[in-house]
Amino acid sequence: MKRKIAFISEHASPLAVLGGVDAGGQNVYVAEICKALSKQGYDIDIFTRMDRCDQPRIVNWLPDIRVIHVKAGPAEEVSKELLLGYMDEFTSVMLRFIAESGIHYDLVHANFFMSGLVASRIKMKLGIPYVITFHALGKIRMIHQKDKDAFPPERLEIEQMIVDDADRIIAECPQDQQDLIEHYQADPAKISVISCGFNTDEFYPLDKAEARRKLGLSGDETVLLQLGRMVPRKGIDNVIRSLQYLKDIPHLRLLVVGGCSEMPDFENDTELIRLREVAQEAGVADLVDFIGRRDRDQLKYYYQAADFFISTPWYEPFGITPLEAMACGTPVIGANVGGIKYTVRHGETGFLVPPHDPQALASAVREGISCPEKYQKLCENALQWVNENFTWKSVACEMSGLYVGILNRGHVLPRYLMQLKRSEKRSARQRRTNARTYVIP
After folding, report:
1. Is the pTM of this model over 0.90?
2. Which region holds residue 347: left if phi is over 0, alpha if psi is between -120 and 50, else beta?
3. Which helix H or strand E contains 386, and what residues bound it?
4. Is 305 within the bounds of a domain?
5. pLDDT tens digit string along 113-145?
6. Of 220, 402, 265, 321, which Cα lies nearest the Cα of 18?
7. What angle do CA 333, 337, 341 make, to 5 degrees?
8. Where are the alpha helices (DSSP H) in 47-103?
């Protein structure tokens, strides 16, 4: 019989269009790990907040995977920083769904601290164990964001409660594990380091010239790529400023892919407006192409067409885009932070540089393109490294092992199943009593 897993991802739906402020790595993580786990034999429901009036309550998304839209707050887009007050309603709706559907979930996998809060309350009510992937930690975020962090202060207390209450904590990289132990006093025995992955069906090498033809790029250009959510902490301004130290490189071009719309919206997208101003102030506006958001099936062509993928955020719990780039055979220049310093091997699959250091970034670009033989080796190493260590299939195998360990360790039977079994025993006793009553001597 298949194990039933409930995923909770309150603000990051696997069905969302990627590239916006709140749609990025967590959406990909939930979608891809669920797809890979379903192939391992799991039956999965993903609970996410309804953010449009026309969303059906239940979407039969893929074989053995459903997306359940939970009515919690207004059925419209709401910034994730403002969602905490709707988690009571989210919990109530989810509990009612479980009761009405009669589904027996073996385990809950929560994503982000608000989903963890819901999972904790469900555990309290029904006794279902849960694991948590935080995706970002409030205390670490505050170190980097300071007063720009718009989450309510209660986040820190909630995260601490979840760290103590969860049956298992999934750290996405060693830095994540260290942060949990140092800043939340997490029990090391409760933490499992399980990384993110990439989809081998979506991301793979293709001839660079062919990829460039598809995108209308010429073969003699040196193409740098920045791809992801358009938010300040991603350090896109750092990438743009690095170009002022690379102006002498002929036919240099930086592609910035991402945003809330397919065409760059320089009237309403405040981060995009800021980045264009940064390019103008640095005197490199002619070297930067703001592409806008692109559908997932188009991203591989950008990765494949680039000479280097660049990602220099201040803070990055993991970072899936560097994996996708390396899966396309493109080396990465990344900030020496969080998950990036775990996935990018300095001098082997790319280069690691300090965040907020455009000159160091420019030096890495120069080193990377200075020797064609060394560059080719970077490409080969990147491709081999991610395929050996970071496929979603391998991630799902690790995750399944974690689930099985929790479910087989003699965990207390979920309370609602205990009640069901007691009811069945009472019914059996009553049937035996009735049978004795009607026995003819």
Report:
1. no
2. left
3. helix 372-389
4. yes
5. 999 999 999 999 999 999 999 999 999 988 887
6. 321
7. 60
8. 87-101
